Backbone:
């Protein structure tokens, strides 16, 4: 074989590095969402080496590549011990929190259907603060969503959940902690009620699974893991606080009977017999190997040290945010996530809108995540917030981060939130938005509205990118802030189409 490169490896890598240079910094703590940085270069190097070792391996056939099974067994074992599972608890490495969640829901759905001889459509009961991935699971696996509104402080009332639990429920979802506000759900109370009625109770510990067990004062925290007999499955993500690259999570299920429902087998086609414990067929061992390597190198003591640093930085940031005039921390969060909200006790001219604050922070070089809030079915409002995920590296950046949080607030204090109605009027005037879509989003009634076609949606996204900013602030609102403001006043199909176009167009060749 004669071979020559179409492009030299140097040229290819130079191109890649040029693209990467436009990314937000993935290490160094400036991005307080998406990335999980230990700040330990030796650990980063170990991750790289572990991935290199597993690069060519396929997890499709552990009989051919036993290293894959060894890694998975070891990582599942580490997680099971941590989350107090006994021998009855078995598990799987998946590609992330979403795949783990989907599998937990699928297994529960299948068990429910077997119990009901396939008659009826099962329900999934979940607090409104449960991660959106569970709505996706209900959508994919055809479960009816039964959303339980949260209380005004973002916490879940276990009695309200209990009232929904009946024979039609296949699974109830709890979070430890929930993503939007970092609140740990009353898992013990909910799991006990589910247990009594024979309903599966899943704990989404994507964020908490590898932080809460090491949290200072863990013995005073509520119990939420397999120590509770009613807990049937738990997920912990290694590509978050397991400090592995994206692509690895562990789903633990109580009992082989339950766990085997997540498998997919195809033994009656012409090709090789397919046995998939998870959703993916050819599984990559890259992130799995990295997760295992990190867990071995850190051991429990290493996780404790890193988590102490997360806990200390979280406490400092909670105090700092509460001290900022016009801003506060929403909900009784425990763990690495913090939601900053407007302090409604401050007079309007002193209030800080979290989304404008997030935009100001971005201009100062720090990235936090804007969350839209929600008016729940019972009318209780969950506020607009800005989300911060604290990682071990955050502590070393506090001397710069704290003043930036204050400076950003100073830049936008008293500036009212972006008015979505003005944007909607502008879009109607430009002929881009049909006035019939201007109505508060409602997940029940909006389903009957038509979908927005991709070209109109793209035109609106572009208009949002250029929308003149008529606010009084020296900081201009971002396109994302304008989109979230618009989302408050238009029907869901509009927002959904905009979000799809925003993601879909840039990757069209
Ligand atoms: C609590 C929680 N659950 C589920 C998910 C979904 O996980 P992933 O993004 O790994 O698919 C996330 C992601 O942030 C999360 O924080």
Residues:
């Amino acid at each position: 074989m004669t071979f020559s490169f179409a492009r030299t490896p140097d040229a290819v890598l130079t191109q890649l590095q040029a693209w990467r240079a436009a990314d937000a910094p993935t290490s160094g703590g400036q991005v307080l969402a998406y990335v999980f940085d230990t700040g330990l270069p030796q650990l980063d190097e170990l991750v790289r080496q572990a991935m290199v070792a597993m690069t060519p391996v396929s997890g499709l056939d552990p009989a051919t590549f036993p290293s894959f099974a060894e890694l998975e067994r070891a990582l599942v074992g580490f997680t099971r011990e941590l989350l107090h599972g006994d021998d009855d608890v078995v598990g799987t490495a998946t590609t992330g929190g979403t795949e783990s969640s989907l599998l937990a829901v699928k297994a529960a759905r299948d068990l429910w259907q077997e119990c009901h001889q396939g008659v009826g459509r099962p329900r999934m009961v979940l607090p409104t603060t449960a991660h959106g991935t569970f709505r996706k699971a209900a959508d994919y696996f055809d479960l009816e969503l039964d959303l339980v509104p949260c209380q005004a402080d973002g916490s879940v009332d276990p009695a309200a959940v209990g009232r929904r639990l009946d024979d039609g429920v296949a699974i109830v979802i709890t979070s430890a902690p929930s993503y939007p506000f970092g609140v740990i759900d009353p898992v013990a109370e909910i799991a006990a009620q589910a247990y009594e009625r024979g309903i599966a109770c899943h704990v989404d510990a994507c964020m908490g699974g590898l932080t809460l067990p090491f949290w200072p004062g863990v013995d005073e925290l509520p119990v939420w893991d397999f120590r509770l007999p009613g807990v049937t499955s738990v997920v912990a993500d290694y590509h978050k606080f397991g400090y592995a690259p994206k692509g690895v999570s562990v789903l633990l299920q109580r009992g082989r009977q339950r766990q085997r429902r997540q498998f997919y087998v195809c033994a009656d086609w012409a090709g090789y017999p397919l046995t998939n414990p998870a959703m993916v067929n050819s599984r990559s061992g890259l992130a799995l190997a990295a997760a295992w390597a990190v867990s071995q190198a850190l051991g429990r003591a290493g996780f404790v040290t890193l988590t102490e640093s997360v806990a200390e930085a979280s406490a400092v940031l909670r105090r700092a945010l509460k001290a900022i005039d016009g801003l506060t921390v929403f909900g009784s969060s425990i763990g690495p996530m913090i939601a900053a909200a407007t302090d409604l006790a401050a007079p309007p001219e002193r209030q800080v809108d979290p989304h404008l604050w997030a935009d100001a922070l971005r201009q100062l070089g720090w990235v936090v995540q804007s969350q839209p809030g929600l008016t729940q079915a019972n009318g209780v409002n969950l506020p607009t917030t800005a989300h911060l995920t604290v990682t071990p590296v955050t502590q070393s950046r506090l001397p710069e981060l704290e003043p930036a949080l204050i400076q950003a607030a100073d830049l936008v204090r008293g500036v009212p939130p972006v008015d979505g109605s003005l944007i909607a009027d502008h879009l109607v005037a430009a002929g881009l938005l049909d006035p019939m879509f201007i109505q508060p989003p409602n997940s029940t009634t909006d389903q009957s509205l038509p979908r927005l076609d991709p070209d109109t949606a793209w035109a609106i996204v572009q208009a949002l990118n250029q929308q003149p900013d008529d606010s009084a602030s020296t900081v201009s609102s971002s396109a994302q802030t304008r989109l979230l403001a618009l989302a408050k006043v238009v029907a869901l199909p509009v927002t959904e189409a905009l979000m799809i176009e925003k993601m879909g167009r840039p990757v069209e060749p």
User: Anything to note?
Assistant: Residues 96-98, 101, 131, 133, 175, 179, 204, 206-207, 237, 249 surround pyridoxal-5'-phosphate (CB under 6 Å). The first strand starts at residue 89 and ends at 94.
